[in-house]
Write a structure and sequence with these properties.
The complex is a heterodimer of chains A (552) and B (353). Chain A is 73% helix and 1% strand. Chain A has 552 residues and is mainly α. Chain A has one domain: Orthogonal Bundle (MetI-like fold). In chain A, helix 3 packs across helix 12 and helix 14 packs antiparallel against helix 20. Chain B folds into two domains: 157 residues, D-Maltodextrin-Binding Protein, domain 2, CATH 3.40.190; 145 residues, D-Maltodextrin-Binding Protein, domain 2 (3-Layer(aba) Sandwich), CATH 3.40.190. In chain B, strands 1, 2, 3, 4, 5, 6, 7, 8, 9, 10 and 11 form an eleven-stranded mixed sheet that branches. The chains are: A mainly alpha (552), B alpha/beta (353). Chains A and B meet through helix 3, helix 10, helix 14 and helix 17 of A and helix 1, strand 2, helix 3, helix 8 and helix 12 of B.
């Protein structure tokens, strides 16, 4: 080995480390620091370490009930989402029929809808005056589960569908040729092959359910609380910081464990093997049950949205656009600005959050997909990979409050900065951006880069011609997702948003707290507008046809 | 293929335009706390409302530019002030009530200020506030309200006392805002604690067993569940002033009544916030303004509360249709500060079981 080559390697390592430091620093300052500050306040209440108070909290009967409620509702919701999602994944990814792409896109929308809007839509449906009012579900745990399923069924469809699409057909055909019934084929061949994708989807859905905030806040009433809403109650209303810190810690530990499991189980396609997408087949009679379930799922997803739209157009028993007109007002001085300004603010904030999370996510994805030969290097890479997933598992409420108390000292007095909200939202969106980019970057055959280099291209030129050529489309898709996530973010934003510049989800939630037919209707109208913008963004993303978009 | 190219290009262009035109970068942060001398920020809860003319008058007379920052409800407001103490999000606060005040005073959130109080206001000063941290601005009693029209129509006798609410005759008729998330809810809890002493848990168990409905906030209870607003429960926790807002079209009679048994008196305070960047002069001017006869007179119609100043005329409906309780249940603010957490924990246990 020549000295020059080894020098080049060292330089490469240093460059890699420097590059890795950028996102690590950002996440440390804007995530670890605020969350740490909150935990510090809770664990060192009077300046001295007091874990006894934390243990006390964990022994409270209410804590037990909250944890148990979170676990069982998440489990039920995950199970239902998987049961509904599997047939739909098959129909939408293995069958060919007109309008397939539209249906696919439509089923992706709930996942990016703002949680507050989902909560409101479900409530509109099951309220005593709603279509399903006769079921008397308002304020029950069933309502929360409906909200969670509505939200997450698309994750299952996507993740499993993408795996199903590229499943080798030959084993199934062989089994069928040997006389297996379709059900036997499914049970013995297809299902085992899909298992990694199903488990991966289920664990992520469970994670989303267990950390859901807006849905439970809107639908839970006083009686039902999940860990996340309980942290909110303890922090904002009771100022019981030791209790909030204790619950945050429990949640964080649980999520880290879950992430480790997901990481182990996640179906990572071998990047060097080109994936063959099986041609979709024409629907046959035996597909009827799957098609029926898919139609039911579609209806179930459409129903709350329809209820929302209809509700926004009804006033005093007639049809009217009054609620949309009210968007130009400030709800009798409840806000400092008209509701329409909140939409503009949401869009501006989302733009900033998008480019922040994209640039961060790109660097992270680049770093964690580099070929590393040493064992230590691989370990470091794995830890980094997990580190950037952390925002998924930490209560957005803790993050928001942490921003308020940790970022108030120069040089980091950002509380009055207009960038505070975009930064918080970018961190929430970061894991999704990283998850979208990593498989693509990992899938680039390193030999292409080597070939480019041997043809005389410098590192930058290589990056542009090899990496960028492949990554630009997923990058756009990631931009769409980050934008949508930012538009709907509520947990962290509700704490740090400037009263003079509220975002639309915050406005919707506050309108809901001020009953009166017009306020309620205005909240519905604002939700419809917000949902339409988000859906439009996701439809554009869908047009990009990035394989595996939205899969985990 | 061409269509897809077109979509992509359109998308890209739109994204670029958005990013260029809408970014917040380059915008001036407007500084949450008043660094400049002529700006002052009043932090308050979201029920705050005063006529626009009064705000303009304040700005004209003092030369300060007043920003009103409505955060959340009274409890969360106090907690946020405690969490952000030493570097508050404004210069002056209005809307901290006597159930939360002691905690904030103990944490040293306020700068001392003792303005000249209007006649009648002294009796509402916060007990134990020896450092002049807070100034009383308005008061009101949290009382159980009943929809008289409903009781007349259904031939049921109206409840008269707190004890009545736990009786079978009033099963499933009572709605109450949660003590953990609403300040009138907490006030009602304190009233029951004052009334029943250590037996208050038993009383609440009886209430829950008798079908009392607990909702998040007063607005939900009064505007959604109360029969007067179209709900199905004719007994609600509200204010002594509420009957002034249920007067019939002829203006002759009111259809609801406040039970004067088991009321809890709430007082709302204003205080100058302690902080390096606080515009103390302007903050004091805001406190003075809140005590001025004009603002005091506007309080009933704007915020449904009684002014602390005695010599201010009440609106005609108020004088005619509201009665303030002669005596209200009392809990020492220091005891509230010490026990609130334990009480709320016990209360939450009872109502969420």
């Amino acid at each position: 080995m020549s000295a020059a080559r080894s020098r080049g390697r060292v330089r490469g390592h240093v460059g890699y480390a420097v590059l890795a430091l950028v996102p690590v620093a950002v996440v440390s300052v804007f995530f670890v620091l605020p969350v740490g500050a909150m935990l510090h306040r809770g664990l060192w209440p009077e300046g001295s370490f007091d874990p006894g108070a934390v243990l006390d909290v964990l022994r409270r009967p209410r804590t037990g009930r909250v944890v148990w409620f979170t676990l069982w509702t998440s489990t039920v919701a995950t199970t239902v989402a998987v049961l509904l999602g599997l047939p739909a994944a098959y129909v939408l990814h293995r069958l060919r029929f007109p309008g397939r792409s539209v249906v696919r896109a439509a089923l992706l929308v709930p996942f990016v809808l703002p949680t507050v809007v989902v909560g409101l839509a479900v409530r509109e449906l099951i309220a005593p005056s709603g279509v399903l009012g006769f079921l008397d579900l308002d304020g029950t745990a069933v309502a929360i589960i409906i909200g969670l399923v509505f939200f997450n069924v698309s994750v299952v469809i996507r993740t499993v569908g993408v795996a199903w699409e590229s499943l080798d057909r030959r084993p199934a055909e062989a089994a069928a040729a040997l006389g297996a019934t379709p059900w036997q084929v499914f049970r013995t061949v297809t299902l085992p092959a899909l298992r990694p994708a199903v488990v991966s989807a289920a664990s992520v859905v469970f994670l989303f359910c267990a950390t859901a905030f807006g849905v439970v806040l809107v639908l839970g009433g006083v009686r039902y609380a999940s860990v996340e809403t309980e942290i909110y109650l303890l922090t904002a209303d009771l100022l019981d910081l030791p209790a909030a810190a204790a619950l945050s810690l429990v949640q964080m530990l649980a999520v880290v464990c879950l992430l480790v499991v997901v990481g182990r189980l996640r179906a990572v396609p071998d990047p060097t093997v080109r994936r063959v997408v099986a041609p979709a087949a024409r629907p046959r009679w035996r597909d009827t049950p799957a098609v029926v379930v898919t139609l039911m799922t579609l209806a179930a997803v459409a129903l709350p949205i329809l209820a929302l739209v209809v509700g926004s157009l009804r006033r005093d028993g007639g049809w009217s656009l009054d609620h949309y007109r009210a968007l130009g007002g400030s709800a009798d001085g409840l806000f400092e600005v008209p509701v329409s300004d909140a939409l503009a603010a949401s869009l501006r904030i989302a733009v900033d959050a998008t480019w922040l999370s994209l640039s961060l996510g790109l660097v992270v994805a680049f770093v964690v997909t580099r070929r590393v030969r040493s064992l230590v290097g691989r370990r470091v890479r794995a830890v980094l990979d997990g580190f950037f997933m952390l925002p998924l598992g930490v209560s957005a409420v803790t993050l928001g409050f942490g921003f308020l108390i940790a970022l108030d000292q120069p040089p980091l007095d950002l509380r009055a900065s207009p960038m505070l909200v975009p930064i918080a939202q970018a961190l929430v969106a970061l894991p999704i951006v990283v998850r979208l980019l990593v498989p693509v970057l990992a899938g680039i055959d390193d030999r292409q880069r080597q070939a480019a280099a041997s043809l005389g291209a410098g590192p930058v030129r290589t990056l542009l011609t090899v990496d960028l050529a492949v990554v630009w489309r997923p990058l756009l898709a990631a931009a769409g997702f980050a934008f949508a996530v930012s538009l709907g973010e509520f947990g962290a934003t509700s704490f740090i948003v400037r009263p003079s510049e509220p975002t639309l989800p915050v406005v919707i939630y506050r309108l809901l707290g001020h009953p009166g037919a017009l306020n309620h209707g205005t909240a519905l109208a604002a939700s419809v507008v917000l949902a339409s913008v988000t859906a439009a963004v996701i439809l554009v993303v869908e047009r990009l046809r990035v394989p595996g978009t939205g899969a985990w | 293929m061409r269509v897809r190219m077109l979509t992509t290009i359109t998308g890209l262009t739109a994204a670029t335009l958005l990013a260029g035109g809408c970014s917040l970068l380059g915008q001036e942060g407007d500084g949450g706390s008043g660094v400049e001398d002529d700006k002052v920020t009043l932090v308050t809860h979201e029920s705050f409302a005063l006529p626009e003319e009064l705000v303009e008058q304040f700005e004209d007379e003092t030369g300060y530019q007043l920003t009103i920052s409505k955060l959340t409800d009274a409890g969360a407001l106090t907690n946020q002030l405690v969490l952000t103490k030493d570097n508050p999000v404004g210069d002056v606060v209005f809307g901290i009530d006597n159930t939360f005040a002691t905690r904030a005073v103990e944490e040293g959130v306020f700068d001392a200020y003792a303005p000249e109080l209007p006649a009648g206001a002294e009796q509402h000063e916060l007990p134990g506030d020896d450092g002049d941290a807070l100034t009383p601005v308005d008061t009101g009693a949290v009382c159980v309200n009943v929809d008289r029209a409903w009781f007349r129509k259904n031939g049921v006798a109206e409840p008269r006392t707190l004890d009545d609410l736990a009786k079978p005759a009033y099963e499933d008729l009572f709605v109450v805002p949660a003590a953990s998330t609403s300040s009138p809810g907490l006030a009602f809890l304190l009233a029951t604690i004052a009334r029943y002493g250590d037996d208050w848990t038993g009383y609440w168990q009886d209430l829950v067993a008798n079908g009392a409905k607990v909702v998040k906030g007063w607005t939900e209870a009064y505007y959604e569940d109360f029969t007067f607003s179209g709900g199905d429960r004719p007994i609600v926790v509200s204010y002594d002033s509420s009957p002034a807002f249920t007067v019939d079209e002829a203006g002759q009679r009111t259809s609801t009544r406040a039970l004067l048994d088991g009321c809890f008196r709430q007082v709302e305070y204003a205080g100058v916030l302690k902080g390096e960047d606080t515009n103390t002069e302007a903050a004091r001017a805001v406190v003075d303004w809140l005590l001025s006869p004009e603002v005091q007179a506007a309080l009933p119609t704007s915020m449904y509360v009684f002014p602390v100043a005695e010599d201010v005329d009440l609106p005609a409906d108020w004088a005619r249709f509201t009665r303030q309780p002669e005596s209200a249940e009392q809990v020492d603010p220091a005891e509230v500060a010490a026990q609130r957490q334990a009480w709320l924990e016990a209360w939450t246990e009872i109502v969420s079981r």
